[in-house]
Design a protein that fits this description.
With 402 residues, this protein is of the alpha/beta class. Helices cover 37% and strands 17% of the residues. It contains 13 helices and 17 strands. The longest helix is centred in the first third of the chain and has 20 residues.
Length: 402
Amino acid sequence: MSNPIRSDFPILAQEVNGAPLAYLDNAATTQKPQQVIDAISRYYERDNANVHRAAHALADRATRAMEDARLAAAAFINAPSAREVIFTRGTTEGINLVAHGLADSLGQGDEILITESEHHSNIVPWQLLAERTGAILRAAPVLDSGDIDEEAFTAMLGERTRIVAFGHVSNALGTIHPVRSLIARCRDNSPARVVVDGAQAALHIGIDVQDLDADFYAFSSHKMFGPTGIGVLWGRERLLDAMPPYQAGGEMIEHVTLERSTFNALPYKFEAGTPNIAGIVGLGAAIRYLNELPRAALQHAEDALVTQTIARLKEFNAIRIVGEPKERLAVVSFLVEGSHPADIGTLLDQQGIAVRTGHHCAMPLMQRMCVPGTVRASFSLYNDESDVDRLIDGVQKALTFL
């Protein structure tokens, strides 16, 4: 059955290598609807100006568009205040900003807890922070299924645990982590600040930061139909107020003399320099587009596609599904016996089928699952049964070729 929103995404109408495009690399980046493309074009055609500085009409329109997008982002995640919404370059910069800002709260022997399931963007910033402060970085184990070992996670919490960071959804396996339960365990067993990587969740799961009870939540525009190079970091206002600026320059200052400077109020304290205004406009348009969709029905259809894909791949004796988590979202990772994932990806690409291959920026998780990498088919709200058919047919042809 054809997906009712598919026609909103012009890129999906093209052919690749002589075949209709089947785009199944959505965990890396999603495609953009015409509504988002038009919003960015309109900004450059009509409103292009710097924000918060000039006293002319274009600057006023640009500033209002930027702040309207901030309000939309705050509502999208149910933030208590738009002051808590900081525009970043994406999830990666958001996590780095938090790691920089919490450095003063760590000392020799304090602990940072992550999990084996994390994207490198939620590992390396904490490694660097531990090296700078003398803190100890620990990682909670992952079960064979791909789920976090919750009992081991709890046992690793303690009075020296100052930061806990984990993803909402695994980009490599699609595991939906029990975020509320994990955060509750953190509150009961440690004084830690909790940082959630929401890059893979923001499009698919309704995010309510107040209900989750996290301290920080980061996500990226380009994984939810918006442009690249822009994202959101949400944090509790009192924590953001206490953190030092991440970068210095224009916009983040209140008053400057040659001797000293004072800093702007939230959120501008963390938004040094001219922002990615067009990206922010595009993010706002993406949020408005998502708000108008029947997201529950589309998500249900997407879940059905994932279930169907797994069932059909299991019909091939040579294929191994990597990870069988309790709850899965949008991602199917698999291996073909005797073949390197990159070879399978190349054979699929020759048929116009776009998937991801490799370690998916999750090398520790690949090591835990005892695989060098996987073939990853990742879905979005615009995919339909034709994409599943194309993938299965493509795999079958690849197996015949091999």
